[in-house]
Specification:
586 residues; alpha/beta; Rossmann fold; 3 domains; 6-stranded parallel sheet; 15 helices
């Protein structure tokens, strides 16, 4: 039985919440390996359970994703009325109520596909910004059939190279980010595998490589990178640092470059195959299957394996492809974040070897945001540990990998934003909460927020809950509130302050250093005994009322916790019938 993780449940609820108040095209942002397929399947099952007459179309561009999403749907709901329309998979089941389709196969067949109530787009960042594309034309024709069509995008990277955020700009198809969970949070919570990086002695020389459309010119890039001496040196480092790792994935700068890299790896005594966009389907399937089984140590690719490629065992990624695209960079690194539960000892981490300067160019993958078009470019400040060559924030005083202590600076420098190689600051810690206080916080020009301060021994940690904001800020505030009380979520800070005594208080908070400050990334709540019966309340009745507390301050050392008689909100029933009802008049 497939079970949704907490953030997956929250993402499904966010879709319903969005359509209760808005009519746009929302985005759901879940990191690579975060389980978008299960979220999509769960959402579809919920919709058809509540509204059986709905027709749902799931679009993507890669046949592996089509098959993967369909398999996830059938695994969750074996009786699902689901079909596939994909030339690559040899199936054209156009009349299925739930239809998983490839955009290349259906973009000229809107009439054959017919009426659809919902279109879910997986890997939504690959929809070009231009209005005249396969996706845009197809969606326009579907809207001609059903003007009430709703479109929902799913992606790990909500931005494009040329136009910035997917929901911003003149031609944006999507209108809002309804839900986003950071990759850092999923790593810290154990749902994704950590990434580590080591400085490489080999670096690619990009002098003379021009830019077109915001990206390196492909032919010039390959000519600059595909040098025998550079390839040999890079492969030497891959072999040296990856000898004890089981599955290497190498991203290359061209077809010839990938072939030369694979040949160099084989010359070192390790098996390696190549995959390109034009690799025949049967051969591609055979190679990927052999790689997943451990029969191949390495894959060298060009232009593929950045989306729709699911190989949990990947524990080394070598970037020999420079890119100016933050999305491509994140997608490449994300191939190593899957957990390898099929291994006897799992997989402790995935090593990223960046010969291409992508980490310096874009920063940690959990902090990447696209540069505003037209703005200047600059590298992220990093430093290298002299003992183990880990790439670290410029502000790090100690290497978290080997324990090396950096000497103190000779003089006090102006603090700078803390960044790290492939992930931002590591080593969050759980700290015990002694006391919590709440206050209304005002900032000029912004709606007020709820300031929450946690007294933990001699340290105080703060967070700001934006209940009166809109969009994703409000959504995060709702998630925060639901963890502490399953009742009605207040719309104002004044309203929230009247409910403070009904909030569960965490016994510990998860704190991560972030530059000069610290951020709170999670909280733990103790089971709450029922005062009358002595039993532990159910999971749907969260501990809430705090006897002896004031509206704005609660002490964990003196408070007596009892059950809150507040009915929890169901996930699917949150949406009114009008949300997805077909043919309803406006």
């Amino acid at each position: 039985m497939l079970t949704l993780r907490p953030y997956q449940k929250a993402s499904v609820a966010a879709i319903y919440d969005y359509f209760e108040t808005k009519k746009g095209n929302p985005l759901i942002v879940i990191p690579t390996a975060g389980g978008k397929s299960l979220v999509i399947a769960s959402f579809i099952k919920g919709v058809l359970t509540a509204w059986p007459d709905q027709r749902i179309l799931i679009l993507t561009h890669v046949r592996e994703l089509i098959a993967q999403n369909h398999a996830e749907m059938m695994g969750l709901w074996s009786e699902a009325p689901a079909g596939i329309y994909s030339a690559g998979l040899g199936r054209r089941e156009a009349s299925a109520r739930i239809l998983f389709a490839g955009i290349q196969s259906v973009h000229k067949r809107a009439g054959e596909i017919g009426h659809a109530d919902l279109v879910l787009v997986d890997e939504a960042h690959l929809i070009p910004g231009s209005g005249n594309t396969m996706y845009r034309r197809f969606l326009e024709k579907l809207r001609d059939i059903n003007p009430k069509l709703k479109v929902i995008g799913f992606t790990a990277t909500p931005f494009r190279l040329d136009s910035g955020m997917l929901h911003q700009g003149k031609n944006a198809l999507f209108t809002d980010i309804a839900y986003e969970v950071p990759v850092r949070d999923l790593i810290d919570q154990g749902y994704l595998c950590p990434l580590i990086s080591k400085a490489t002695g080999t670096a690619l020389d990009l002098k003379g490589v021009g830019t077109r459309g915001g990206e390196f010119i492909a032919r010039a890039l390959q000519e600059a990178v595909d040098k025998e001496a550079i390839t040999a040196a890079a492969v030497d480092e891959i072999v040296k640092l990856g000898r004890d790792r089981k599955a290497w994935l190498v991203f290359c700068s061209g077809v010839d470059h990938a072939r030369h890299v694979a040949e160099a790896i084989r010359d070192k005594g390790f098996s390696c195959a190549t995959i390109f966009g034009d690799t025949p389907k049967d051969e591609r399937d055979r190679i990927i299957t052999a790689f997943k089984r451990g029969e191949l140590r390495a894959l060298a690719s060009m232009g593929v394996l950045t989306t729709g490629f699911n190989a949990p065992g990947v524990d080394l990624i070598a970037m020999l492809r420079p890119t100016k695209s933050p999305g491509l960079y994140v997608q490449m690194a994300g191939r190593g974040t899957r957990l390898a539960s099929d291994r006897p000892l799992g997989k402790k981490n995935c090593l990223v070897l960046d010969f291409a300067g992508n980490v310096t160019r874009h920063g940690p993958i959990d902090l990447v945001r696209p540069k505003t078009p037209g703005k200047g470019e600059g590298d992220v400040p990093l430093k290298t540990c002299p003992e183990c060559q880990s790439l670290l924030p410029i502000s790090a005083s100690e290497c978290p990998d080997c324990g090396y202590a950096f000497p103190p600076p000779a003089e006090k420098l102006k603090p700078r934003a803390s960044t790290e190689a492939i992930l931002s600051n590591r080593d969050p810690q759980w700290v015990k909460v002694d006391h919590v206080s709440y206050a209304k916080h005002r900032k000029p020009g912004k709606p007020p927020s709820l300031r929450v301060e946690y007294q933990c021994g001699l340290r105080t940690y703060s967070e700001w809950i934006c209940l009166q904001h809109k969009g994703y800020a409000r959504k995060k505030a709702e998630i925060w509130w639901r963890k502490r009380n399953d009742g009605v979520i207040p719309k104002s800070i004044d309203g929230a302050l009247t409910w403070i005594k009904y909030l569960a208080i965490p016994v510990e908070i998860h704190v991560r250093p972030n530059g000069r400050f610290s951020e709170i990334i999670n909280a733990r709540f103790a089971p709450c005994p029922d005062i009358q019966t002595g039993s532990v309340p159910s999971a749907t009745a969260r501990p809430g009322v705090l006897a002896g507390s004031t509206p704005t301050s609660v002490s964990m050392t003196r408070a007596v916790m009892t059950r809150a008689a507040i009915k929890p909100e169901p996930i699917f029933a949150a949406a009114p019938a009008r949300t997805f009802a077909r043919g309803e008049k406006a």
